[in-house]
Structure formats: structure tokens, C-alpha cells
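Contributing new records

If you add data, match the layout below exactly. Sequence lines come first and carry their own label; structure lines follow with theirs. Keep one chain per record. Anything else will be rejected by the validation script.
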Amino acid sequence: MESIVKEPKTTQKINLIDGHFTSSEAADIINSVLNVKINFHKLNRLSITEGNATDTCEYDSGRIDELLHEQIKAKEFFAQARLQGKKLKMSSTIHISVED
């Protein structure tokens, strides 16, 4: 009996957001996603320096700063849409692939 070897999956796609939302709903979704990413980077920064008394605590906070800036831009965008009484369509797909 011959066995069939199944190739391991090397890509994954997650359909994270797909639909129509009020500006308040969209703002809640985007702020939640951005806050999770910001907290991820803050915790990563903390774990790198934790327990090392000689660490100068120098860490590139560039990504955190970028995400905070995006949060401000999003807030302005959603406020404008809210004032105009517009609904918003959002979609977001995460593509993941295995690298060697």
C-alpha cells in the first residue's frame, strides 16, 4: 500500500474585516487593531530590556510611533465621515507565508 505524502501548507490567508460599517463602528475596529499592535510592540520592547540592569533601554520605537500616527490619521478620517453621515466599507486580509 502506497502512502501519500501531503505537502505542508506554506501560506495562509485570514479574511479579518469585510463589510459595511458606521464611522463609529469602523473607528472601534481600527482602534482595537492598532491598540493590539501598539501593545505588542511595547511588550516586546519591555521583554528585551527586562531584568538587565545595565541595559540603556535604547529601543527603536519607530514602529510604535508609526502606529500612533496612523491612529491619529484614522481618527480624523472617521470624524470627517461621521460629520458627512457616510457609511464605510472596510476590508482587510492578512497574508501569511512560511519563510526559510
